[in-house]
C-alpha cells in the first residue's frame, strides 16, 4: 500500500457481507480463545463502493487484534450508518489502551501495551 503497488478493485458491495466474511475467516480464533463473537449489523444497508478483499483484510486484522488482547468475554463487530457514511467498528471486553498510549495508535509500525 505504501509504495502504491496494490491494485485496487473497486466494486459495489454490501458491507454486511464484508463483516460476515471477516467473522467467518476469524471463527477459529474465537473457538480457540473461548471468546463470544457478536455482530450488530443494520437490517438495511445501502450499497457501497470499495475493494471487497482489502476491506475484509482490514476487518480481519481488527478482529484478530481484539481476540489477541481479550482474555475473557466477547468481541462485537458492527456497522453504524451516519448519513451517507458507514462506520465499521470492533468492540471488545479486553484491557483497552492506556490513556498515555492513545496518541500512538495511528503511528506506523507502533505497538503499545502488553502483547502477551
Topology of helices and strands:
Layout: E1 10-13, H1 15-25, H2 27-33, E2 36-40, E3 48-51, H3 52-68, E4 74-82, E5 85-92
Parallel strand pairs: 2-4
Antiparallel strand pairs: 1-3, 4-5
Q: How would you characterize the overall build of this protein?
A:
β4 and β5 (85-92) form a beta hairpin. The chain has 116 residues and is of the alpha+beta class. It has a single domain (10-104), classed as Heat Shock Protein 90. The protein is built from three helices and five strands.
Sequence of secondary-structure elements: EHHEEHEE
Going across the biggest sheet, name each strand in turn.
Answer: 2-4-5
Which CATH class? Alpha Beta
Radius of gyration: 15 Å
Task: Report the end-to-end length measured between terminal Cα atoms.
Answer: 28 Å
- In the predicted model, the low-confidence regions spanning at least 5 consecutive residues are none
Could you tell me the strand content as a percent range? 25-35%
- General shape: globular
Fraction of residues in H or I helices? 25-40%
Summed up, the helix count is: 3
Number of E-type strands: 5
CATH T-level fold name: Heat Shock Protein 90
Number of domains: 1
Sketch the major β-sheet: 3 strands, mixed
Entry keywords:
26% strand; 3-stranded mixed sheet; 30% helix; 3 helices; 116 residues; 5 strands; alpha+beta
